[in-house]
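Below is a typical protein record.
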Amino acid sequence: MTTTATDLRLMAHLIRRAGFGASRGQLEKYAEKGYGATVDELLDAPDRSEMSDDLIRRYHHEQSGMMGQISPGSYWLYKLASSEDALREKMTLFWHGIFATGYPKITQGKVLSDQIRMFRRYGLGRFRDLLTELAKDPAMIVWLDNHDNHKGAINENFGRELLELFSMGVGNYSEEDIKEASRAFTGWTIGNTEYMALRAERDSIWPYGRIAWHFQFNEHDHDDGEKEFLGRKGRFDGEEIVEIICQREATARFIARHMYHFFVADEPPVPQWPYVEAQDPQAIDTLANAYFESDGDISHMLRTLFMSDFFMSSDSWYARVKSPAELVAGVLRLTGEFDRPRRQIVERQQQMTWMGQYLINPPSVEGWHEGLEWIDTGTFVERLNFASSQMGNAELPGVRAIIERVAANGGAMGPDRLVDRCLDEIGMVSVSEDTRDSLIAFASKDGDDVESERRVAELLQMIAATHEFQRA
């Protein structure tokens, strides 16, 4: 099978969305397998190949306990930048943005990192299983106060967010449904430490303190009485509430719109969804149908999305602004800076934070507002500085490989051909004519030096600063 430039550009689009981008050489390997086979491989990656935990922890001893605020995010950045199972990491990022849980209230990085692991395990399976595990997750229990949700004295925080932000969306339930759901989750708490003792600093950190929080069901604190929830009556417990939620059309459409927003094109923030129609209602219908025909299987929904016309159409290319995590992980994969643990991982995480995304520390239970809200005068400068400084560093192995591939073209190249080669090698980036003309004008200065390593590195810096490179 002959691989065309169009095939490679479509593959580049897929890998930008289902992963974090790839070099020309990596895209060629994917293209040899074909688009459909690559989708199957991404959804069913047989082996996880990434930087191993034992290697990371030998270099960063604080990433064993992860009691602080920085270690969990920098540990996750290693995975984002190195895992060959890129779609699983992408979905972990997807769920972290929806089920937003943060450090300031938890004050313990280990359980937050454990929540991210849980997203890895369940994030590509059935939605009801993921939602049930979320309700049992110690970080979420503390984040939304379910340890204070008692028989006869309910706390509605988790019940409310379960319906509003985690599954159905505003307008699809009543205040009474919130109360009844909260009753069903009474007794779902954390074990190993009394929360008030924790607040009074009477618990020990090692070896059985906060680091070992786990789910605990307190039968004596559970309201086992009859409840009426979303029009159904029964002595429901938490798992039965989740089952009812996952059977609703509103849930299927809510998850479908999140998927469209994350993988296809930027949508408005979630609070606007009850009032602003989805930009492609037919796409939402398609994804909601995939939800029901597979019993809420997330992998099936993703396969439907990646194989759809609305995803593959060139109209969706570069229709999303990369989140800081996507930008940083994608650049680090291109540059190959972290072939082993290095102290610079903390600096890279801080740079991501300056761009507006502090992993495992979202601004609220709503997560981050994405799309163009990632961009302001401050964060945009940080994005440009990071991407251009990384892609212009010829000492990094990935950048060195790109320069060598450009040089291996053979024969003299004019500025226009040099620009096209660099755009291809950095991941088959497609740019507007105006952008290309600007890059050619830059490559044309000091004409005798067009093909030097310095000029190629400078051109890579310029491409990293383009409108298109900052989008997915």
User: Anything to note?
Assistant: Residues 195-208 have pLDDT under 50 and may be disordered.
